[in-house]
Amino acid sequence: MFEPPTLKDIATALGLSTSTVSRALRDTYEISAKTKKLVLEYAEKINYQPNPNALSLKERRSKSIGVVVSEVANHYFSQAINGIESIAYARGYHVIITQTHESYAREKINIQHLASRSVDGLLVSLSAETNDLHHLKELHDRGMPMVFFDRVPESIHTHKITANNEQGAFDATEHLIKSGCRKIAHLTSSAQLSISIERLRGYKAALNKHDIKVNPDYIKHCPHGGMFPEETEQAVLELLNLKDKPDAIFIAGDRLSIGCLEVLKKLDIKVPEEITLAGFSNSDVLNLFEYPLSSVRQPAFEMGKTATEMLLQLIESKYPVTEFEDRVIDTNLFIRD
């Protein structure tokens, strides 16, 4: 079993007391420059690292934050995590990343595990299945610093960071209308997710602006956001089997876009000749497809950075924070011809 080197190991090897070694490593004035140099050089030689558990007991901080996302492989979340790490590591915090795979049960287990590891705070993006927020409210009420990003709850009063989903969805839908489409379907994720609600609102607003009636048959929810291919396939087939078929689909997510393209390719339906697509996607993979798919890009890296800055402000505040911010960052529509 691996045993990392300790203060005692350094003290024994150098014939010093553990308190002298500890003070030398902390660079206190009581220790001579010669002794400090001796201790620091030996500590580096044996790759000594301070015990984080001992530090957390002393400082009442673990210098780590927990991150809860649906899936690291999702292009949006991988970019957001890069943003999270860029701030956290620069400020001396470790990042522990967990995935829910859109499961409420997995989200609960992950949150409990992170809390038991004594993380200093949590960055959370809700799973597609999450309706009950009790596991998060309980921790929040007990004083756990918590910031939500991308998929956020209404009922927990803390900092929240989102993209301008409604405007992004409006822009993508209006682009389809201006391209000549009138029968525009909407393929989206779980109905209770904040991103689904906001993107549906933007889709409807664009249709209303251009005097196009909203057809409920054209709106399809995939409860797990395209994580299961059969879920996406069923939704796309239902749209294509309608008597009055749509001439375009606005798709509300990365996985759903790729899943929809796969179904259309399998059915040999040509894009955009037979159906036009627009989506929400942070994936550069779409550039490689033979099918042109205009997409709304979220500022994922910036959202991760901002959420982390907000969380560290909560963690390091000397006084209880009572004023919170709902920050919304603009999206960009990338048009692919």
Description:
There is one protein chain. Helices cover 43% and strands 15% of the residues. By secondary structure, the protein is α/β, with parallel strands linked by helices. The strands form 2 sheets. It has a 6-stranded parallel beta sheet with strand order 2-1-3-4-5-11, sandwiched between helices. Helix 9 links the parallel strand 6 and strand 7. Helix 5 packs across helix 12 and helix 10 packs across helix 11. The longest helix has 17 residues.
Number of helical stretches of at least 4 residues:
12
**What's the CATH superfamily of the largest domain, by name?**
Response regulator
Assembly type of the chains comes to single chain
Low-confidence stretches: none
Radius of gyration: 25 Å
Helix fraction by DSSP (H/I, runs of at least 4)? 40-55%
Q: Any guess at the CATH architecture of the largest domain?
A: 3-Layer(aba) Sandwich
* Strand order, largest beta sheet: 2-1-3-4-5-11
Broad CATH class of the largest domain: Alpha Beta
Largest sheet: 6 strands, parallel
Instruction: Return the domain count.
Output: 3
GO molecular function, one term: DNA-binding transcription factor activity
Pfam family, one: Peripla_BP_3
Keywords: DNA-binding, Transcription, Transcription regulation
Protein name: Transcriptional regulator, LacI family
